[in-house]
Model the fold of this input.
Amino acid sequence: MRRIVDAAVRLAEQGGFDGVRLRDVAEASDVALGTLYKYFRSKEDILLFALAEEMERLEAAIAARPIQGGTRLDRVVAFFARATTGLTRRPQFARAVLRSISAGDSDMAVKVAGFMLRMTRLIVAAQRGEMPNLAAPVDAPVGTEREQQIAFVLTHFWFSSLSGWAGGLHSARTVAEQLRMAAALLIEEE
Done:
C-alpha cells in the first residue's frame, strides 16, 4: 500500500489531479491494477489517504512545536498559517487533494468528515492555547459549542480560500491574510 500512495503523490506533484491515473499509479508503484483496487476505490481515495498522512504530520509538528501566540486570535491565525504552508508547499499535490475533497463522492464523505474532525480538534486547541489530545478518538467532543462553531466556519472558509489559491486567484499568503480577517470577525479579543 505504501508504494501505491507514494506513487500517487509523486504523480500528483508532477501533473496534479489529472496526472493521477490509476493505471499509471499501478505501473509507477509496480503493483497490478487489481492489487491497487484491493486497497483503494479511486484516485480520490488514494489522495484523501495521503491527506490523512499530511494531517498526521501536522499533528506531530504541533505536538513537537506547539502553536504560539498571546491571544486566541493570534494562535488560530498561527495554526492556519502553519496548515496552509504545509499543504501548499507542494502546489500540484495540494490542488489534487483539494479536487478530491470537493469531488462530492459520497464514498469519500467519511474520510473528508474525519479530516474535518481532526481540524476541529486542532483549531479548538489553538483557541484555548492547549495541546490537542491526539490520543483521544477523533470523534471525541472537544471544546465548547462556540469553539466548535468557530472551527467549523474557519475550516470551511479556509477551503474556500484555498480553492481560490488553487485556481490562481491569489497567493498562499493571501489565504493567510483572508484567514486573519475571517478569524478576527469571529474571535472576541481577550
